[in-house]
Amino acid sequence: MNSPKTLPKPKYKKVLLKISGEALQGKKGYGISPEELETISQEIVGVHSLGIEVALVIGGGNIFRGVAGTKSGIDRTTGDYMGMLATVINAMALQDSLEKKNINTRVLSAIEIEQIAEPYIRRRAIRHLEKGRVVIFAGGTGNPFFTTDTAATLRALEIGADLILKATKVDGVYDKDPMKHDDAVKFEKLSYMEVLRKELKIMDATAISLCMQGNIPIIVFNLFQTGNIKNVIMGQDIGTIVRSKADG
């Protein structure tokens, strides 16, 4: 009698997925595309089904970007707060899409907006994750002059995530933009210091430095390749991994 096959187990137990606001805009070039929202939420459902703890940070660039606002005369601090509010809008849209797929979610905002989101409290976030809820962190860090990449790294460290998944439009990190240069070379592995030294635009320097201090790996991958998030979590070699040199 044949013994039952042992199903493969996920390599990671708790992950934070960082998604840019632009990922939601699709071909529209602005706002929220229902098609892209559906695609992204369906990918998250697939990951959640593995029984791992899933947290998300989503940017607001599809609605408003603080740095860009300064070019039109808006004060930088004001612009950054406007960008934080944009992340709340995106978080609500993603929450709605996930809830329609019977996935329990919580939006935790660094800016208190109690009518629509819970205030960010570290212990509360951890308990939600333990109960199998998808947690969406909104409002950045709650402070101007910090990017959502930094917010993602900070939250990942606070909840004890095993991995940061940096979702992009391309399948990893290249020495130059592969959309513009046919001879762009992809990196399979990088150290934090290499990212800083080569000035690779994976995340800003503050976020990379925090990852280095907390020794949390980053995997940069193509969000729009079906099944990629799930495959990364199962341990497949997808995208580019960034970690300390000591890890090999």
Account of the 3D structure:
This protein is an alpha/beta fold and 248 residues long. The chain has one domain: Acetylglutamate kinase-like (Carbamate kinase, 3-Layer(aba) Sandwich), CATH 3.40.1160.10. It is built from eight helices and eleven strands. The chain is globular. It starts with 13 loop residues before the first strand and ends in a 5-residue tail after the last strand.
Question: Mind sketching the topology for me?
Answer:
Layout: E1 14-19, H1 34-48, E2 53-58, H2 66-70, H3 76-99, E3 105-109, E4 118-119, H4 122-130, E5 134-138, H5 148-159, E6 163-168, E7 173-174, E8 186-187, E9 189-191, H6 192-197, H7 205-214, E10 218-222, H8 228-233, E11 240-243
Parallel strand pairs: 1-2, 1-6, 2-5, 3-4, 3-5, 6-10, 9-11
Antiparallel strand pairs: 7-8, 10-11
Helix pairs in contact: 1-3, 5-7
Overall mean pLDDT stands at 92
Largest sheet: 9 strands, mixed
Report helical residue fraction.
25-40%
How far apart are the termini?
Answer: 42 Å
Overall geometric form: globular
Indicate the low-confidence ranges by residue numbers. none
What share of residues are in beta strands?
Answer: 15-25%
**How large is the count of helical segments?**
8
Under CATH at level 1, the class stands as Alpha Beta
So, CATH architecture?
3-Layer(aba) Sandwich
Instruction: Assign the CATH superfamily.
Output: Acetylglutamate kinase-like
Query: What is the N-to-C succession of helices and strands?
Result: EHEHHEEHEHEEEEHHEHE
**Main sheet: which strands, in order across?**
4-3-5-2-1-6-10-11-9
